[in-house]
Amino acid sequence: MKTFTEIRALREHLQAERFAAAGKGEDLRVGLVPTMGYLHEGHASLLRKARGENDLVVLSVFVNPIQFGPNEDFERYPRDAEKDLALAEREGVDAVFMPSVEEMYPRPTWTKVKVAELTERLCGASRPGHFDGVTTVVSKLFHIVQPARAYFGQKDAQQVAVIAQMTEDLNFDVEIVPCPIVREADGLALSSRNVYLSPEERKAALVLSRSLLQAREKAQAGGAVTAGEIRADLTRSIGGEPLADIDYVEIADFPGLSPLADTERLDDAGRGADALIAVAVKFGTTRLIDNVILTKKGMA
After folding, report:
1. Full set of structural domains in the chain with CATH
2. Sequence ranges of the binding site
């Protein structure tokens, strides 16, 4: 495994690897896993997926400042480069890209990539500019690495939808591969920010997965259950936890993210499109997101 901190060095390495593969009459399939580090088993699952589908796996570790708002946690976002490198080595990563902020943004960023519509809902409504930062850094990584595939966790379903839209609109020759949410044994979705939770807050946060599971079961039980009923159930369930401060409880088409009307049915028989049931809730100062996706084949 090789580690790179400079764009030029990584590009030269990948170019050499592609040239060597071409000399053997082979195409080099590169898989990219973009992360902000402080890796956990959820990230490891992305790396394993990439390892199984590509000839060379690149992991990027970069806490991207332009996707953080002025009152968000950029400075205190958890970082542990040594732990990240150990996990990457264990999962068979070929190259790790760990640039500095100065390397990625050597001057003020006057050019940004913006996806309209999809970014104005859900997390975008309470985090203005966040997704502009995400799409800008991901587009930079796509240009630098030129992967065949890029892997993203479904826990941030809106991010998956936004990046897929950007990739299609800008004709990036990259396959976006969404990967399932990985949870703790008690149901809490893995997140680097879970480290912020106090023991009491972490226990309280279990209301998210518990409530989403109940919503999924009700939606798939058949009958004329509506989006309004599920929203009300989720709001009541999560709101009943004293430490929970709800940002949003939303049900939307996926990947279009258009909110479903309260009267729209969610059962598979009555719907022809996938539906995202998503929540964002604060516990103390820690904002957590979670979701389930209802499809014709069940839950993702």
Report:
1. 2-179 (3.40.50.620), 194-294 (3.30.1300.10)
2. 36-43, 67, 153-156, 159, 182, 190-193
Annotated binding residues for (R)-pantoate:
67, 159
Question: Alpha carbon of 263 to those of 228, 231, 260, 266: distances in Å?
Answer: 6, 11, 8, 10
Query: Are the beta carbons of 269 and 263 closer than 8 angstroms?
Result: no
Residue with tokens 């009555």: 270
Cα torsion 155, 157, 160, 162: sign: negative
Q: Is 24 exposed, middle or buried (0-12, 13-18, 19+ CB in 10 A)?
A: exposed
Task: Give residue 34's pLDDT.
Answer: 98
Residue numbers belonging to the annotated binding site for ATP: 36-43, 153-156, 182, 190-193
pLDDT tens-digit map of 225-279 = 899 999 999 999 999 999 999 999 999 999 999 999 999 987 644 445 689 999 9
* Residues involved in catalysis: 43
